[in-house]
Amino acid sequence: MDDMLLPAIQARYACRRFLPDPLALEDVASILEAGRLAPSGFGLEPWRFVVVGDADRARVAEACFDQPPAATAAGLIVIVALVAQLDPQSDYVRARFDAEARGAANEPVYDAYRAVYRSDSIAAWAIGQCNFAVAHMLLQAAHLGLASCPIGGFDSTLLARTLHLPDGEVPALVLAFGHCAHAAPERLRKPLA
Q: Is 131 among the domain residues?
């Protein structure tokens, strides 16, 4: 069995405080590419990745209640759920389904999506889909030797305002990346059995 991915999985943990070392641009690009390649329900890829620039870093950390990972990370990426674009009749859904059909009839996919689409629960579904991209990004960071921390506790309104998100785009998670200021703790997991 090829265990090439397991070392990165085993090395990944939530870093609580980062060193001020900057991230290489190619590492950020690689992390973004890992998220872009993540699977998604119906192939909709209902996400957008916002790399936080220096001008917004303090406000994003504030929106994350100044948690140390957000305040000290060399890099922050906000995963945004594209909630408004998921209406079955939207141009976005139409374009994604046409792409997924690869020239074949896309009506079966439309029928299946219409059966599960509910406007009152689509935000939760879209945020859940964003977690697939997040998992890929976290593992890519570990593969690159970078520490990371997913941050789910934040003021969504302040974060959306800071990033100038349009209506219908919802912050799903904030990812902090960099070189960890402390050693990895002992890995505690339930036994496989």
A: yes
